[in-house]
Amino acid sequence: MTFVSTNPFDDDKLHEECGIFGIYGTPDAAAHTALGLHALQHRGQEASGIVSYDGTRFNSHRAMGHVGANFGQPKVIQGLPGDAAIGHNRYSTSGDTVLRNVQPIYADLAFGGIAVAHNGNLTNAYAVRSRLVKSGSIFQSTMDTEVITHLIARSEKHHVVDRIVDALKQVEGAYSLVCLTAKKLIGLRDPTGVRPLVLGHLKGAWILASETCALDIIGAEFVRDVEPGELIVIDESGLNSHKPFPPTASRFCIFEYIYFSRPDSIVEGHSVYNARKRIGAELARENGVDADVVIPVPDSGVPAAIGYAAEAKIPFELGIIRNHYIGRTFIEPTDQIRHLGVKLKHNANRVHIEGKRVILVDDSIVRGTTSTKIIEMVREAGAREVHMRIASPPTTHSCFYGVDTPERSKLLAAIHDLEAMRTYIKADSLAFVSMDGLYRAMGQKGRDAAKPQFCDACFSGDYPIPLTDETGGQTSRSVQLSLLAETA
Ligand code: AMP
Question: Which CATH class is domain 272-448?
Answer without folding.
Answer: alpha beta
